[in-house]
Amino acid sequence: MLADNILFLRERYPDVYLAVKTWEETKQEPKTFVEAAKDGHLTLKYSSGDKSVYIHSKYNPIREAEAIIDKLSKDQVINEHSHVVFYGIGLGYHIESFITRYPMTSYSIVEPSPEIFARYLDHTNLAKNLNKNLILLQCGNQADDISARAVQLREKNLLICEISAYHQVFHADYTAFFKEFKRIIKEQRASLHTNYAYKKRWIINSVNNFKVVLQTPNVLLENHDFSKGKSALLVAAGPSLDLEIENLKKIKTEGLAYIFSVGSAINTLIAHDIEPDAVCTYDPSEDNKLVFRKVNEIGLKEIPMIFGSSVDWETLEQYQGPKLHMITSQDTVSSYFLRSENGEHLETVSDAPTISVVTLELLIKLGFSQIFLVGQNLAYTQERIYSSNIDYITEEMQESTLKEKGIFTESVDGNQVKTSESFLSMIRQLENVIKKYAANVVNTTIGGAKIEGSTFKTLKQVIVDDLAVSGSYDFPLYKIEQKKKYDCKYAITQLDSLKSEYKVYLNLLTEIKNGLIDLSELTRINQEHGAYKAHLKLDEKIRQMENNAFFKMIALPINRIEYGMLCTEIQKIKAERNYLKKAKSIIKPTETVINLLYTDMALNNEIMLVLENVVKGFA
């Protein structure tokens, strides 16, 4: 390993240094050999037994590297909004070609073989050949490192580029990595879409719902005696729900367990005269109110609704039954204003891609000892997606979904069942909750996807084996009263503080805007010392804004994606040693975010007015 590489890796990438050093110390029989190619450049050969494979062309590795980048450019749009993951470093020719062609595009390098990495480090100066846009350098095969970075890179279009020989030489590692990488890309893009779609609604809903939150019981704060040690059914709208109607009627009639309906399942249940003990909802989208349209039309007013505090505000406004709330992790408004009168910790539920995950966490925190999943197919069981009697899900919508290319996963009975990436994401979230809380979960969903951590048993058998004696589930949830109040004096104090913080925030925006103008002018006339001082002053104002309560509670959640992009740019620019270049590079992305914050002024003023009226009304 070159001495410069040792110093560079020890300082910047100690894990990579350790992996390569550990391999070198094992003194294993080498499998990789550096040779001279026909064009005079070095190439790399991998030998194992009687089988040899050239990692690079043995004739012209430079031309081959350029061809790799040509193909990547042809297949994908590459610009400053892309992030390329190179699987396999080899001797680095293709990465050097990429950097020359796309000097502004960020990238990561994953090398599964410490031996090949060692060969690269023997012949190439790492610090000189890899530019400031390198985000991740890994020696190993852990796609989860990319997954962790995807949070930072959520505004980027993730692409992958590989050396074709790696598929042959490291087939198992290659297959495992690519499978996981595809999952990461799909989840990242789904998350990005969700954030863009909901970023303002989360805040608007939280503000509009705040009055209802103050006026209704917090289901996690009130007495849980009704649920401790009891059984609960979490009923979703999968196609197998239709098979359980008679079993659910028996459970409801004889009071064998509490029934919690999630999502569209309420429509199937009420069509069969089954009233669940509660409906649970949290979806922030405006379409969420369609779920309860039938309930509202027929005037059902006895079923309690447990709502996440950032749920679509019109859903709450239109629902006629009793309401209880749970505070969601996305609700920065409630977390800022609310404190219980007696100082009790306020439990929250984590945001998730499906109400089933949110409700599972809720039921666990309520103290239910057994939770039974019903209609939780998370698969296209018998070429259906939903249970019956959901009138806003048309046949055309179901058929359109079913026509999409499906994938297969293990079902509860050990066979294979057709599913989708979004369903797989939900399955993983359910599995994470079960594992986190070591929950006792039984999946009764006939034909559904397997959920690790749960056991499978039919609902008919569950009634015989597991459900308690009739009469022990006789406490209706609408009787939960708001006995544990929120601290109104604390809310008033927080309001006064927020009003002051809002004024400071507005001044900071103006100061940052002016600071950007000054910095732009100083860099234009190449005044390095002046630019340095202006940049320090600008940084201090931005730090003050980041610590501002209004920014953290309102402005940042609304613009979380754009602000994340700015943070990524700043991280990249830090490596730039020319101060004028660094200062110039920071101006445009910062201006973009500040201008966005300015465009929210009218919304911010309205939010402050609503919050002031609600909090003063509460007091």
Structural category is alpha/beta
Number of strands: 18
Largest sheet: 9 strands, parallel
pLDDT averaged over residues: 86
| Helical coverage, percent range | 40-55%
Number of individual domains: 3
The gross shape turns out to be: flat
- Main sheet: strand order: 13-12-11-10-9-8-14-17-18
How many helix segments? 24
pLDDT under 50 segments (min length 5)? Answer: 150-155, 190-197
Radius of gyration: 29 Å
* First-last Cα distance: 69 Å
Report strand %: 5-15%
What does this structure look like?
The structure is a single chain. The chain has 619 residues and is α/β, with parallel strands linked by helices. The protein has three domains: 3-169, Rossmann fold (3-Layer(aba) Sandwich), CATH 3.40.50; 212-469, no CATH class; 488-618. 52% of the residues lie in helices and 14% in strands. Strands 13-12-11-10-9-8-14-17-18 form a nine-stranded parallel β-sheet. Strands 6-5-4-7 form a four-stranded parallel β-sheet, sandwiched between helices. A three-stranded antiparallel β-sheet has the order 1-2-3. The termini are far apart. Mean pLDDT is 86; it is low at 150-155 and 190-197.
